[in-house]
Amino acid sequence: MTGTTLDDYTDRYARRVRGMTASEIRALFAVASRPEVVSLAGGAPFVGALPLDAVGEMIGRLVSDHGPTTLQYGIGQGTPELREGICEVMALSGVDAGCGASPDDVVVTVGGQQALDLVARLFLDPGDVVFAEGPTYVGALGVFQAAQAQVRHVSMDDDGLVPAALEEAIAAAARAGQRVKFLYTIPTYQNPTGVTLSEARREQVLDICERAGLLIVEDDPYGQLGFETEAPRPLRARRRDGILYLSTFSKTFAPGLRVGWILAPHAVRDKLVIASEAQILCPSAFAQAAVSTYLRTMPWQEQLKTYREVYQERRDALLEALLELMPPEMTWTRPGGGLFVWATLPAGIDAKAMMPRAIAAKVAYVPGVGFYADGSGAGNLRLNFSFPTPERIREGVRRLGGVIEQDLATRRIFGAVSASGPARQRRPGADAPGPGLA
Amino acid sequence: MTGTTLDDYTDRYARRVRGMTASEIRALFAVASRPEVVSLAGGAPFVGALPLDAVGEMIGRLVSDHGPTTLQYGIGQGTPELREGICEVMALSGVDAGCGASPDDVVVTVGGQQALDLVARLFLDPGDVVFAEGPTYVGALGVFQAAQAQVRHVSMDDDGLVPAALEEAIAAAARAGQRVKFLYTIPTYQNPTGVTLSEARREQVLDICERAGLLIVEDDPYGQLGFETEAPRPLRARRRDGILYLSTFSKTFAPGLRVGWILAPHAVRDKLVIASEAQILCPSAFAQAAVSTYLRTMPWQEQLKTYREVYQERRDALLEALLELMPPEMTWTRPGGGLFVWATLPAGIDAKAMMPRAIAAKVAYVPGVGFYADGSGAGNLRLNFSFPTPERIREGVRRLGGVIEQDLATRRIFGAVSASGPARQRRPGADAPGPGLA
């Protein structure tokens, strides 16, 4: 009835957003952004590595020479020019015309986040189950939870998603009569772990999903940010069908423009466009022109190389500092690319409970619990190496090591406050990376 | 279970998007954008009226001087700088600090469309009822239908929404036990009619909604585009509570940047931010910097004046051409601002059925049926005057008049193909504007 008040409305909605952790992370970032704090908490690319004068000149001309088009409304699917550019970018990773990737099947989105949200809007009903790596991208969890879907984590190790665990999850869902809508996976330089699904497992995961008729949502924001070696080809480069491929220019060009995309099977593409039009009418013609002109007129592959070099140096700084400055009970991943390292604290230390002490010591990270839908991850934390300089990274790890040592000392004196089972004690060596993955 | 195919998925979703008319309108725009066609179908502002060289220079400097910020991620609510600028813009219309409008309560969105979508996401459950003017903005209908809400149109006349009709709709919903979530209204220079809710009725509508505890969603994209006289103050300038106020820079600056906003009561604002973060993570830092720098450093109020003058001249051209070239059975609105005129065809002519003949005669419009959720509007069409030049407008009306005359002649010879009741025969005079509103 009409007799409800605004408070009633908001109370009703409050039930719907239950479980979202975005606001917690937001509060954390607000603290972490203070200049005196070394933030290993972010996920920001180092856009300072771009040739800003040249990009500025290019972008200015988009208005002075082409304003009547770039400042105007566009079409919901995105400009043909950008969709062609996107296909060239995907071809670098092996997702090309040979595997049926056509500009016609690309939908331009407001960053990778809108891509995820459109997929959720298209496919998820309340109560549906989504499989995802454990841990996984916090923004995906937010989308799935907003859609009132249940996330079932599939365990990982150093080679990524464990195929046997995926098969087991599928069987368990079948026994429970659950409706599983898709597997959401970030197979390459995953957020938050930095782990990559191995070559051999890619085929296994594809086979398992094909047999089960399970749609795969492949999120690939980091695939072109490999360091020593190139990343294995995306899942979508191996199969045409049953995969929605999502990516973004946020990590390879600039997140401030908010340009991402979905490569979708033809039948789905139209519905994604309709859903996107209802949501945002059309993506920014200006941002699209900025990206497509950047791809057409500037040395974007050289820029990718620059990003890779900068991030590799910073990853090395982080791994070296961890090895030197962390207590021996600590473990962590050794990512071959991307932006993140995932660390496991000594047994019994809770990453979220430790945050106030870390902030007091002027260092920030993201507690691992935010990357799980089921409360796991208490002993984990995500460390970002793309944004801070090597010197800042080293200083941050030094501060973090001090906080952890202090927590360990407190525990030795007073005993554990909350026991949470024995942590894995494996310490990474040069050729045997520690996973730190529950 | 997991054994569903991609086709099953899309079939399922196909049920959800039923009722959307966006794709029809998209197809229409594709035809209408051919250069030989005079399009009165669009809704585009004339961004060519902007000082493109100066804007280009300003925008280029945002990258060369401030790239590390403007190309980076931002926060979900939008930058404080832009939210302050938005409050200055709203103050021009009377929505100011005095009525509790604070930068803190503004949420920046991807144009007005995302604002609408967030409101729908926050408040609408399947089966809910939304009241809206009949006719109303087609993009709002798309959002409400995607949310599986039912739209009940409230009738309008030359003074806008009819208060008695609103009261009747509220009573009818109460009798039927329906859950009405809000009144969606565009009170000023409405899309598609150009009609403005009169000063006296604004208070009546507010009182009615307050008594019924009915939330108002006030959409105000055109309020600052008044011609001879200023628009009445927005509803939100009159009451603090129970109103969500939506607007956009698409009509007053440039739609290609996709920047709009919601002014929301404090309790709702946080939830809108969380919902927006799940949808797009954050609005474009670059687009926000472009708008806030435009507001801070360029003569934006002068630009508003320019837009008004250009549009007034074009509206006059449209109204004069209609008066001169249309058959006497035709009626239309005389908007005091905005972008659109709403016309009513001679009895028995169907605007959608006439489209192929209009396109053959190289003129395009939007058939009225798209602006109703209930199939009304067959005899109506929306004519845009903001984008085409006065000469093109006159030529378009000449072509359209020919098509209508031909349809009338055919009807006189062969009789009506589909009778749809007598149309209103009132022809607008200089001081007695014809409403053409069912």
TrEMBL record, chains A, B:
Q: Which cofactor does it need?
A: pyridoxal 5'-phosphate
Top-down, what is the taxonomic lineage of the species of origin?
Answer: Bacteria, Bacillati, Actinomycetota, Actinomycetes, Micromonosporales
Task: Report the Pfam families cross-referenced here.
Answer: Aminotran_1_2
Q: Does the keyword Transferase apply?
A: yes
Record domain Aminotransferase class I/classII large: where: 64-400
* Residue numbers spanned by region Disordered: 419-438
| UniProt-recorded name of the protein | PLP-dependent aminotransferase family protein
Going by the UniProt record, its keywords in alphabetical order are: Aminotransferase, Pyridoxal phosphate, Transferase
Annotated InterPro entries: Aminotransferase_I/II_large, Class-I_PLP-dep_aminotransf, PyrdxlP-dep_Trfase, PyrdxlP-dep_Trfase_major, PyrdxlP-dep_Trfase_small
PANTHER family in the cross-refs: AMINOTRANSFERASE, KYNURENINE_ALPHA-AMINOADIPATE AMINOTRANSFERASE, MITOCHONDRIAL
Q: Which GO terms describe its molecular function?
A: transaminase activity
